[in-house]
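Sequence only, no structure available. Ideas?
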Amino acid sequence: MTHPEKQGWALWFVGLPGSGKSSIAKAVLEALRECGAVVTYLEMDARRKAYFPNPTYSAEERARAYELFLQEAEHVVAQGQGVIMDGTAYQAAMRRQARARIRKFAEVYIRCPLEIAIAREQGRPEGLVMAGLYEKALDRQRTGRDHPGLGQVVGVDVPFEEDPQAECVVDSGAVTVAEARDQVLHFFEQWATT
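Reply:
I predicted one. Tokens follow.
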């Protein structure tokens, strides 16, 4: 497999929480590393906790977190390495900014119907992100009940903005993780040589 090692690059896996972006991003990361690529993995959920130990998920905090996330990716790319960015990036402007600042950049949009994302997320254990995210957001919408630590939830409280400029789109509701990985690797092989 070819990869543009002399020139750094960034693939940003974006989509709804529960869309499968982390599973797919990690599968692509593993495949690229097996082929000898030097790739850094930046996961927004983990990085956000480093930037803000007690995140509020406010619009201002999200904007700052994504700016710091992008700066980290830029640093990796500037060293001539590849970086896989794994983060929702619900505003198309976030991805456009990355596209403008990183010469070799591609958005990998993991498209997923909200119902499937909700079903997947229900099985997610408590960890870097609050468990039951969608369930709590929908409960808050229905009842007005507060859930401490729950900010605005993408897909419920704020929309995920699709970007027609996305270089690679995978419909994770219709394929397995392995099939999605292969779709992204096929895209990468073509993209890496341009």
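The longest helix spans residues 59-78.
Hope that gets you unstuck.
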